[in-house]
Amino acid sequence: MRPLQIHQLRSIYDMMSLKGKAALITGGAGGIGRSCAAGLAEAGAAVALMDIPQKKEMLQDNCRMIAGRYQAETMYVTGNVADEDDVNRMIGEAYEGMGRLDIVFANAGVGGNEDNPAQIQLSEWKKVIDINLTGVFLVDRIAANLMKRLGNGGSIINTASMSGHIINKGSRQDMSRHMTAYASAKAGVIQLTKSIAVSYAADGIRCNSISPGMVLSGLHDHMDMEALERYVEECVPMNRFASLDEMMGIVVYLASDLSSYATGSDFVIDGGVTIW
Fold first, then answer.
1. Global pTM exceeds 0.90
2. Rounded Cα distance, 107 and 268, in Å
3. Which entry of 35, 155, 161, 256 is annotated as an active-site residue?
4. Backbone dihedral region of 150: left (phi > 0), alpha (psi from -120 to 50 degrees) or beta?
5. Calpha distance 217→34 (Å, rounded)
6. pLDDT tens, residue by residue, 214-253
7. 123: helix, coil or strand?
8. Do 103 and 21 meet the contact criterion of CB atoms below 8 Å apart?
């Protein structure tokens, strides 16, 4: 076997294209979900956006705007990612509606309201773990099993977090917000990603995760913005929040053939926080 010569190399643009592919995005009503759904649609994919029933109107609006801007096929499904029956139903509806399933972006998550291990309530712990870790597991497993049956391979992308790599210390004025359950769940997502990747590699199914840092996505809307701004000033080398369009590229990359030899990897996009 010999290495490719220049005239044998594939086109970067062809490798990036998702034409003829279909993608399911969980957490599709939120900032990262809707922006990455838009990126996948612009690259050519049909997209199904998923979120909880209470966000149905937001899903409808996002589908309408994505379809209008990119002339893409769109649809939405609602349910609870932490409920196995719901996940089976939602993935089935997405597959039936689009006719195939090539890409899954398991992005649904919640931030949690806890501070540290001494204060967190068990009910809050269970809620954060159920949605952020168990929900990703269910989406990954059910989607991967469907992809395996279809025999066309696929790409699964999980949303982890820089909090899966570090314990958030907060600003110097607020050292208590360690986000115990959130950090634990997101660290679990990184390891889950590796397990899914090795379990389905022989089926042509890749699984990778992304670990965003401080993104202006809506996840932090209930938090103290002054404290978050102090955190960014003190802890983020790039000294700013990320914008939603800075999340699209990595997801499109992992969904496409540009990343065809990447699996079981976590991609950190945190402005440099985890350098320290």
1. yes
2. 15
3. 161
4. alpha
5. 10
6. 998 766 666 677 878 888 888 999 999 999 999 999 999 9
7. helix
8. yes
**Can 182 be counted among the known catalytic residues?**
yes
Dig out the tokens for 245 from the structure. 């369009």
**Given 76, 95, 182, 253, which residue is catalytic?**
182
Q: Which of 186, 200, 231, 256 is catalytic?
A: 186
| pLDDT (tens place) for every residue of the chain, 276 residues total | 899 999 999 999 999 999 999 999 999 999 999 999 999 999 999 999 999 999 999 999 999 999 999 999 999 999 999 999 999 999 999 999 999 999 999 999 998 765 667 778 899 999 999 999 999 999 999 999 999 999 999 999 999 999 999 987 754 555 446 788 999 999 999 999 999 999 999 999 999 999 999 998 766 666 677 878 888 888 999 999 999 999 999 999 999 999 999 999 999 999 999 998
Distance CA 223, CA 156 (A): 30
Tell me how far apart the alpha carbons of residues 90 and 92 are, in angstroms, rounded to a whole number: 5
Distance CA 30, CA 244 (A): 10
The DSSP string of 127-172 is HHHIIIIIHHHHHHHHHHHHHHHHTS-EEEEEE--GGGTS-----T
Residue 55 annotated to the active site: no
Q: Express each pLDDT in 38-76 by its tens digit.
A: 999 999 999 999 999 999 999 999 999 999 999 999 999
Instruction: Let me know: does 51 contact 35? Beta carbons within 8 Å.
Output: no
Instruction: Reply yes or no on whether 148 is catalytic.
Output: no
SS3 62: helix
- First-residue to last-residue Cα distance in the chain: 42
